[in-house]
Amino acid sequence: GKPSGIRTTEAKYWTYFIQDEECFTISTKRLREKLVKLKPRRVPGGDNNTSIGYEALGGNTTADNNTAVGYQALVANTTADYNTAVGAYALDANTTGPQNTAVGYQALTTATTASSNTVVGSYAAGLTTTGQYNAVLGQAALYTNTTGDNNTAIGFKSLYLATTANNNTAVGYE
Question: Which of 127, 48, 174 is nearest to 57 (CA)?
Fold first, then answer.
């Protein structure tokens, strides 16, 4: 049963808004009828993948264990396993680079075969294409890196101009 003192009711109508403008209202009964008819979109190819967002993981062929949340997150991924992309365009150019985590708008956006990177922040490691084992935290941190490996950048624009440098650690603004 329900705990005492808590009362729940089911909504009879749902009103949907787009940019603060009322778009439409639908009854709960009609909404249920529509939802029953929906067919969930299976991520093409691979196993144990999760995608939420327009074209997220859309190019997947055989890759397994990927999570893509956001507009075109991991859209080009074909065979790379164990990637997590959260944010619009996060890891969107990745094709075969495994074991990356990218959180933020355009995080690791040009990475194609980069592997084992952990990146958090909008534009973080944005130009990295093949770099690996980089740890990045901060907006635009390690942004111009293309092929550099084993770097740690923490802070806004930290290691921003390191394009091909390896084995660096930077903490702080720029």
Answer: 48
**Mind listing the pLDDT tens digit for each residue in 148-158?**
999 999 999 99
Is the whole-model pTM more than 0.85? no
- Residues with Cβ within 8 Å of 27's Cβ and at least 6 positions away in sequence, in order, are 12, 13, 14
Q: For the chain, what is the mean pLDDT?
A: 86
Pairing of strands 101-103, 118-120: parallel
What SS3 class is residue 69? Answer: strand
pLDDT band at 41 (very low <50, low <70, confident <90, very high): low
Greatest CA separation for the chain: 63
| 122, 136 Cβ separation under 8 angstroms | no
pLDDT of res. 33: 73
CA distance 59 to 170: 35
> Tokens 């980089």 belong to which residue?
134
Sheet containing 50-52: order of strands: 50-52, 67-69, 84-86, 101-103, 118-120, 135-137, 152-154, 169-171
What does 103-114 look like in DSSP terms, one character per residue? Answer: ESTTTTTT-SS-
- Name the phi and psi angles at 92, rounded to 5: -70, -20
The residue assigned the tokens 């969107």 is 92
Pick 33 or 56 by higher pLDDT.
56
